[in-house]
Amino acid sequence: MRVLVMGGSGFLGSHLCDVLIARGDEVVCVDNLCTGNEANIAHLRGSPRFRFVPADVTDHFDFTEPLDAVADLACPASPPDYQRLPLETLAAGSHGTENGLRVARRHGARFVLASTSEVYGDPEIHPQTEDYWGHVNPIGPRSMYDEGKRYAEAVASTYRRTLGADVGIVRIFNTYGPRMRPDDGRVVSTFITQALSGTPLTVHGDGSQTRSFCYVDDLVAGLVAMLDAAEPGPVNLGNPNERTVAELAQLVLDVTGSASPIRYAPLPVDDPVRRRPVVDRARDRLGWTPRVPLDDGLRRTADWFRTRIPVPVAPRS
Ligand code: NAD
Ligand code: UDP
Question: How far apart are CA 222 and CA 279, in angstroms?
Fold first, then answer.
């Protein structure tokens, strides 16, 4: 296959490029590097089956070579990133996704949208199945991301319903692993960076809010399964192993052996109280289940961060 990966220099996108190249596909990676990093794809640059195109997907773009699939991951994804780039985030969910759909349709290619558990907002239904419509504040400080993705789902569904486009939607729950930016502000990268540098772990609120954390290799296997399927979705992709943020902090201290204290900080506005995917649909329709346990995934992630963070671990006494 020849696959266009929009946002391919980011955390998830670069791992997707790796898996596609490893199985023999050709990959065109389009990215404007607004939150991504060229280092994530540096090792692929020598491959004749990999091409990097520095471009903003919200601008008009097209390719002369044939395409079999388009994966749309081009969007700032961490709360500090999308709040720093609010209009760009809305543009990615609207113009960016529309451009990807247009290109996919012109090439007769399958289009897979990387949507998010954030379409469920602060959910009133727990755990979340795909038929839940969500509870999103349309004018709140997370709305540029949540509503951008809801629009992206709407336009992708409209292409499928009215134009017969081959479109699939995955809703990704919190995913972590190597290549997250240490300063991206997401909880796993932040806690690991703090633990490894011996600074306090900043737990928001009382730490009782929950998330369900999926290791990147599992998540990318689900993305590839969706690219290869004819499934329209939406399909939840995530690890249903739900933890409080306070439990996560303790686990990070345990796997890193850090003596960092915990410091409590204010809970951000509209921070969802709980989040856990039902992944039966992914199992039944894609044959996908997450496999990597949280402590194992955190250990692998911390090992990678250790090679990036020069400050020594503060040992436990
Ligand atoms: P990321 O910020 O590392 O990756 C996003 C990539 O898209 C970056 O390389 C960025 O430079 C690029 N990009 C953004 N806007 C662009 C534009 N206009 N033109 C070209 N490139 C652009 O984030 P990630 O965690 O890898 O997320 C990838 C996708 O998966 C996003 O769409 C995100 O919404 C979705 N997602 C991720 C998670 C998660 O936990 N990681 C959860 C839910 C959904
Ligand atoms: N969080 C935290 N400390 C941090 C960063 C995040 O306690 O330094 C919390 C955040 O408020 C939220 C959870 O961890 O309750 C997950 O945050 P993240 O930004 O990783 O993902 P999202 O909120 O988008 O699910």
Answer: 11
